Amino acid sequence: MTAELVRGQNHTLPQTRLEIRVSAGSPVVAGATLGDERGTVRGAEWIAHPASHRVPGLEVSRQAAADHRLAVDLDALPAEVHRVTVVLALPMGAGRPVSFGAVAAPFVAVTGLDGTEIATFTLTGLDTESAVSALELYRRQGAWKVRAVGQGYAAGLAGLFADQGVAEAAETAAAIQEAVASGLARSVTPPPRTTEGERVRHPAGPAAAGAQAPAPPVPEAQPAEPLGDPASARTEAPGGGPIDYAHPRRQTSAPPPPPPTAPPAAPGQPARPVAGDATGWSMDERLYNQIWGMFEDLARAVAAYRSAVDFAESRMDQELDRALSDPRNRIGGAGDRAREAARAKRDELTGRAREALERDLAELAAESAVVEPALPAAYAGWDNPVWHAYRVPMEIPMALRLGDLRLGEAPDLRIPLLVRLPLERGIWIDSGRTASEAAASTTGDQLRGLAVETAVTLAARLLAVYPAGDFSVHVVDPAGSAAGQLSPLVGSGVLAGPPAAGAEGVASVLAHLTRRVDLVQMAIRAGAADALPPDLDTGEHLLIVNDFPHGFDDRAVTQLRYLADEGPSVGVHLLMVADREDARAYGPVLDPLWRSLLRITPVADDHLADPWVGHAWTYEPLRTPQGSRVLEQVLALVAEARRGGRR
């Protein structure tokens, strides 16, 4: 029976190999400290955190996420350890919550390896605290117990570590936040949490292998305000309309449920998938939420499978240890029989987990087969027939497809990677060599060429989904090395001007966009739109920077960082094509720039992480079909519409 703890209450632990599961309403950092009989943490090596996720007997998540699973083996802890404290903290960064009082109350559960809950604790009553000691596993008279702590620290991790006796508390806390910031820079941003019941949620953990594990409660749903929206600052433009770089159709109230679009399934049969069966104010929003639901379902289904396999392996090891610890089983056939029985049980559990995963994958594949053909152009791949009927839209869509995501357990199932519009962070297309197999088989020159091609197709998609004249693209190519790849944009006439070359060209474009950001920001703050120059283009702008940092001096680098930080809120977005190794000469000064951008690659690479369980997802960029001229045809229609708007 599960013990639902309140602050200060304790409960005996019936076993020593455990999982601690954390569920929060937004990404949190999960770690643990080891303390001696006085509760003192003797050094940084006694702290498990994302930058050092393993210590003897303990393993924690490698990044901030909304859900965590911490593995604990109390028997494997050092003999001098008498206390394990589970620590939660909010990641630092612009636009992120600064206190637990601003997020849903975290929920923590201690479970056995089979997923059965032993004790749970909901951390209510937090206010200004940004770090909290959630649970404490402690040794008392040879037995282990769990205590609900819930002690918060307004001073963050530094204050928490100092309270536990860590000598260099501030330095350790800063190192953890730096590692977390690097992890968040490669993670994708989920949409706001939707109300439970919109989709069938897959079981998590070893329950997929047959154990019935109660699911943790879902935090209370928040209003449907898009996560990470740019500031909705408004003022009057010279023509009388508002300057507003938030999406014009975003709502702040809960959307209505989806309308019934298919007859109910026969008893005993799975429900037939339907495109747009999520909640939303429009079909675009329903499809957007449905795709993110598929992404989350696949993440949790694979997490359940992996957890079940780990449980089966751990159980086999325990049974073998018990059997072979008896000297009588080391001779004759008893030991062989014990090994065979343990392996058979492992294979049975693993097989059941695989069957459950296959069922989940089949449902998701059927849903994908229905959803993919129904996608609008902004969400569709270049091979979707919707592009052949393309017309320049009258308003921007909810989101844009950047590529596809997949996991190793389901290589044929691809989930579209969608980002909200207007773009809420810049994008960095990494032209350097990575550890992926696709990058290893590609030369450096080929990678650089593919990176520019990826930037061109992404810019074309952005131009195609905005109304004519509402989106402008500028290109900086200091050495002129990307002339061939940029030809579709240059030849169609959709660019705001020729690609800027040389140091003078770089300085001119950066000065133009920096001035625009400054003027619009001042107009918004002062409510003085009448003072804007009449020739100022208040539409949105995209700056493509190729081959950074070539052609950039210190002033240009400063302006680029300014555009990355301040530009998105006033409609100026950054698309970098660069190899980070080329910028090492600048040292850590550019680290905030890289962390502020969403990194994608020109070839398949498993560098993106989900916000729920932290899987490393393989990202695949969108390519036009071999021999197709769909890109040129779309750009020609965009250019024609832009010319018509200027008449």
Structure description:
- By secondary structure, this protein is an alpha+beta fold.
- The chain has helices spanning 156-163, 169-185, 283-324, 334-371, 437-440, 444-465, 487-492, 502-526, 554-566, 591-595, 630-646, and strands at 3-5, 10-12, 17-35, 47-48, 54-55, 58-59, 65-73, 83-89, 107-112, 117-122, 131-140, 143-153, 399-407, 410-420, 427-430, 471-476, 540-548, 572-578, 598-600, 605-609, 616-621.
Our count of helices gives 11
Shape: globular
Unreliable spans? 194-242
Helix content: 25-40%
State mean pLDDT (0 to 100 scale). 83
Biggest beta-sheet profile: 12 strands, mixed
Number of DSSP-assigned strands: 21
Radius of gyration: 27 Å
Amount of beta strand = 15-25%
Q: In summary, what is this structure?
A:
With 647 residues, the protein is of the alpha+beta class. Helices cover 30% and strands 22% of the residues.
Question: How do the helices and strands line up, and which of them pair or pack?
Answer:
Layout: E1 3-5, E2 10-12, E3 17-35, E4 47-48, E5 54-55, E6 58-59, E7 65-73, E8 83-89, E9 107-112, E10 117-122, E11 131-140, E12 143-153, H1 156-163, H2 169-185, H3 283-324, H4 334-371, E13 399-407, E14 410-420, E15 427-430, H5 437-440, H6 444-465, E16 471-476, H7 487-492, H8 502-526, E17 540-548, H9 554-566, E18 572-578, H10 591-595, E19 598-600, E20 605-609, E21 616-621, H11 630-646
Parallel strand pairs: 1-10, 15-18, 15-19, 16-17, 17-18
Antiparallel strand pairs: 2-12, 3-4, 3-7, 3-8, 3-9, 5-6, 6-7, 8-11, 9-10, 11-12, 13-14, 13-21, 20-21
